[in-house]
Write a structure and sequence with these properties.
Helix content is 27%, strand content 28%. The protein has 3 helices and 7 strands; from the N terminus they run E-E-E-H-E-H-E-E-H-E. The protein starts with a strand and ends with a strand.
């Protein structure tokens, strides 16, 4: 198992940003709010759609740190503090995060009473490498070409 840590997502609290099992296979990503990594603890201003896009950008940062992309997402769980009011705007913003015609991951959307820092949306996800080329080659080449602070820590 490897711990994924990147500056492209808010710093973690008492949890890991991502855990990669069998490097090159499954990545589980912690819940992300619509928070700018430079200002953790405060959701960005704007609409719920803006915060969905920011949360997805944070998820994308963790994916990139693991040598993956949004197209590798297999499952997404969204938590909304005002599900009935926000679901249409959330769906529109969420779909805009993916290239047109992309295969979208499975998704569950759950209404909740409250989220951290007064946020109106939190998104968790899991990813799996698409079967294109050698898993080992993809992992090695993408992890060795990182330019920002990204950490992959192998755990025994």
């Amino acid at each position: 198992m490897s711990v994924i840590l990147t500056e492209k997502a808010p710093p973690p609290g008492p949890y890991s940003q991502g855990l990669l099992f069998q490097p090159g296979e499954m990545l589980f990503i912690a819940g992300n709010l619509g928070v700018d990594p430079a200002h953790p603890g405060k959701p960005i201003e704007g609409t719920v759609g803006d915060r969905v896009k920011r949360a997805m950008k944070n998820i994308e940062g963790v994916l990139e740190a693991a040598g993956m992309s949004l197209r590798d997402l297999a499952a997404v769980t969204m938590y909304l503090s005002n599900h009935p009011r926000d679901i249409d705007a959330v769906n529109k913003a969420y779909v805009s995060c993916f290239p047109e015609g992309a295969i979208l991951p499975t998704r569950t959307c759950i209404g909740v009473a409250i989220l951290p820092y007064g946020s109106d949306v939190e998104i968790t996800s899991a990813a799996n490498y698409r079967l294109t080329g050698s898993q080992e080659e993809k992992t090695t080449s993408s992890l060795s070409s990182e330019t920002s602070l990204n950490a992959v820590v192998e755990l025994q």
